[in-house]
TrEMBL record:
<dbReference type="InterPro" id="IPR000182">
    <property type="entry name" value="GNAT_dom"/>
</dbReference>
<feature type="domain" description="N-acetyltransferase">
    <location>
        <begin position="100"/>
        <end position="218"/>
    </location>
</feature>
<dbReference type="GO" id="GO:0016747">
    <property type="term" value="F:acyltransferase activity, transferring groups other than amino-acyl groups"/>
</dbReference>
<protein>
    <submittedName>
        <fullName>GNAT family N-acetyltransferase</fullName>
    </submittedName>
</protein>
<dbReference type="InterPro" id="IPR013760">
    <property type="entry name" value="Topo_IIA-like_dom_sf"/>
</dbReference>
<dbReference type="Pfam" id="PF13302">
    <property type="entry name" value="Acetyltransf_3"/>
</dbReference>
<dbReference type="GO" id="GO:0003677">
    <property type="term" value="F:DNA binding"/>
</dbReference>
<dbReference type="InterPro" id="IPR013757">
    <property type="entry name" value="Topo_IIA_A_a_sf"/>
</dbReference>
<keyword id="KW-0808">Transferase</keyword>
<dbReference type="GO" id="GO:0034335">
    <property type="term" value="F:DNA negative supercoiling activity"/>
</dbReference>
<dbReference type="GO" id="GO:0005524">
    <property type="term" value="F:ATP binding"/>
</dbReference>
<dbReference type="InterPro" id="IPR016181">
    <property type="entry name" value="Acyl_CoA_acyltransferase"/>
</dbReference>
Length: 218
């Protein structure tokens, strides 16, 4: 993860823990009434209006975190993170990744999104930095690399909206990972969310291969 990704994740968790401690009686009732772990996470997230990441942290919280000393430490950490970051989860709601999904790229269905990306950047989609070629030729080459297990292209989607790409290209024993977010969907946290999601997705395609993030964010 990038430093920004780690900081935003930590702030989400710390903020959620402090809120849970303030409303501990409601949280405990919610956990007791839940049928299982996943239901408890969903119920906590809804009760406190926090991310799934924060709700998971609340459910996994140790009892010694309830002490006054630990609560003071959490508050101090949250203050530090708030001073270091210039946005809140409310301003960048997509950064939690709760509503974002990644699916395989389709040359037919997603050619329009790739065309927008290529028009903006003017470079090939393989990460080489070479000038962009003919769109159909680029898509054919990408399909061939994916079929040969030398690349994976994923589309970041939220609901019915296609918000960007995650490109993974196998090069010299590493997977170069690049994130591109559509201009209309930037500054909402989608880049951070796509990076979070891509780690497990790309690891499934290339197990045991190191990932190198070349261009995190938009």
């Amino acid at each position: 993860m990038t430093d920004l990704d780690l900081a935003t994740s930590r702030r989400d968790i710390t903020d959620a823990l402090l809120t849970a401690l303030e409303r501990r009686h409601e949280v405990l009732d919610t956990i007791v009434e839940a049928d299982n772990h996943s239901d408890a996470v969903a119920a906590i997230a809804e009760l406190l209006d926090k991310s799934q990441l924060g709700a998971e942290a609340i459910l996994d919280m140790k009892l010694d975190q309830l002490t006054k000393d630990e609560r003071r430490k959490n508050q101090a950490e949250l203050d530090d993170l708030n001073s270091a970051l210039t946005f809140t989860l409310a301003e960048r709601p997509a950064s939690s990744g709760d509503t974002l999904d990644l699916r395989p790229f389709s040359p037919e269905a997603d050619a329009d999104l790739f065309a927008t990306r290529t028009a903006e950047l003017g470079v090939a989609g393989d990460g080489s930095g070479a000038p962009a070629g003919d769109l159909a030729e680029e898509l054919n080459k990408a399909t061939a690399r994916v079929d040969d297990e030398e690349a994976v292209w994923l589309v970041a989607v939220e609901g019915e909206s296609k918000v960007g790409f995650v490109f993974g290209e196998l090069t010299s024993g590493e997977v170069d990972v690049r994130i591109w977010i559509h201009p209309e969907h930037r500054k909402k946290g989608y880049g951070t969310a796509a990076l979070r999601k891509s780690r497990s997705e790309i690891a499934a395609y290339f197990p045991g291969v190191p990932m190198v993030v070349r261009a995190p964010g938009a």
